[in-house]
Amino acid sequence: MIGKTSATLLDNGNLVLRSRSGHTVWQSFDYPADDTWLSSGMKLGISLLSQRSTTCCLQRAASGPSLAPSPGSPSFPVGPSGGRKKSKNSRVKFYVIGACVGAFLAALGLLFWRCKLRKRILGDDESLFFSFTSIDIATDHFSEENKLGQGGFGPVYKGKLVNGLEIAVKRLNRMSGHGIEQFKNEVKVISKLQHRNLVKLLGYCIEKEERLLIYEYLPNNSLDSVLFDAAKRDILDWKRRLKIIEGVAQGLLYLHKYSRLKIIHRDLKTSNVLLDADLNPKISDFGTARIFGENEMRGSTKNIVGTYGYMSPEYAMDGIFSEKSDVFSFGVMILEIISGKKNTSFYDSDRHLNLIGHVWDLWTEGRILEITDSCLDENISITEALQYVHVGLLCVQENAADRPTMSDVVSMLLKESMVLATPKRPAFAEIMNLNNTKLPQNPESSSVNAVTISDVQGR
């Protein structure tokens, strides 16, 4: 009570000054601020004395609680400063919302592009995808300490995932010739193969301009890194060598006959056979592999891929490849495993330029034990040595039609009593008179997951 006037704050927020007689002298609803809401009971009109219109602003108060309008009641801006504030705030909100929407659409587009790229490689199968971050951490940022070797198209690293699983990561060079089609070929082919003598592909990564292939880690590296190393080859005794030959034969037979897809490897060699902890062999590197139709017997290409010394003559000279091309490569491997010598580096100045010719002459002369690796003990079975060398020579015959199929090869290796045909003179037995400039010069690497991958041509 001040003098004869009392002030009362009503429940609806209206501050009222009344005289002693109860007459309303002044009320706050007649003079709303620019940032309040028009509440229930607030009047809107024109002062008859000042002719000034009274309106109410739509914005919330800058500070303190605001009075919310009752449901269904209208609210209007008050004063000339309220309209400008609303316009400015609307522009700011528009810009912010526009930026957010733009960023969202850009992120959505990037995600869509990545998903589309992955589907181009593996259809709808996302289970094989690894993030680059996970592989980067697993390999300790691709450190030199984790580098297992250098292939023709990039290094290979050892890694360990967060779940403890050890992996081998093939990191393809950004500037290499191993394009998206070759990458797609290897992923699609090997992801559909399941056999104990084939290396298992765990996944892949396409991210940050990186193309990575993630394989199971095999601790004993590649066959050539053991077989042709004087300090390591002693661990490959006679029985282990025969077991490796038989395992590779089983894996190749699966590719040619029993897998979901009929596959010609086209680059079978000792550096593309990996050894697990128990020295079991696993065929790797399917970048040059070709898928054949059910009734397709052979293919041809002008772009010859593979490795010098393992290619059959019809493929090296004419670009014709088939199951028998892989059989020839396998035959070379048999002779290398038995002798401990590499076909491409063997040189006998008196008579031969390669291992095949050297073995042929010793076999025809009955000097079988001179073919076997000198590091092997004297407990070698002459019968087994004769049998395996015989099969190897059948596989490297010059005419593809004379070579056995892998079904025949497996039978010949496992059945000692089986009568074998007499092999004809093998290809390249005397002199390698091919024009080397026409052959691919793919460097071999004595390391795990060594690769020689080239363009894949359509049939």
TrEMBL record:
Domain Protein kinase: from-to ranges: 142-439
Protein keywords: ATP-binding, Cell membrane, Disulfide bond, Glycoprotein, Kinase, Membrane, Nucleotide-binding, Serine/threonine-protein kinase, Signal, Transferase, Transmembrane, Transmembrane helix
InterPro entries named among the record's database cross-references: Bulb-type_lectin_dom (IPR001480), Bulb-type_lectin_dom_sf (IPR036426), Kinase-like_dom_sf (IPR011009), Prot_kinase_dom (IPR000719), Ser-Thr/Tyr_kinase_cat_dom (IPR001245), Ser/Thr_kinase_AS (IPR008271)
Segments of skewed composition (Low complexity): 61-79
Segments traversing the membrane: 94-113
Signal sequence segment: none
Membrane topology: Single-pass type I membrane protein
Keyword Transmembrane helix: yes
Catalytic activity of the protein: L-threonyl-[protein] + ATP = O-phospho-L-threonyl-[protein] + ADP + H(+); L-seryl-[protein] + ATP = O-phospho-L-seryl-[protein] + ADP + H(+)
Keyword Iron-sulfur tagged: no
Subcellular location, principal: membrane
GO molecular function: ATP binding; protein serine/threonine kinase activity
EC number annotated for this UniProt entry: 2.7.11.1
Subcellular localization, as worded in the UniProt entry: Cell membrane
UniProt region (Disordered), positions on chain: 61-87, 439-459
PROSITE patterns per record: PROTEIN_KINASE_DOM, PROTEIN_KINASE_ST
Listed GO CC annotations: plasma membrane
Cited Pfam families: B_lectin, PK_Tyr_Ser-Thr
Database matches in PANTHER family: RECEPTOR-LIKE SERINE/THREONINE-PROTEIN KINASE SD1-8, RECEPTOR-LIKE SERINE_THREONINE-PROTEIN KINASE
Protein known as: non-specific serine/threonine protein kinase
Species of the source: Coffea canephora
Lineage, top ranks: Eukaryota, Viridiplantae, Streptophyta, Embryophyta, Tracheophyta
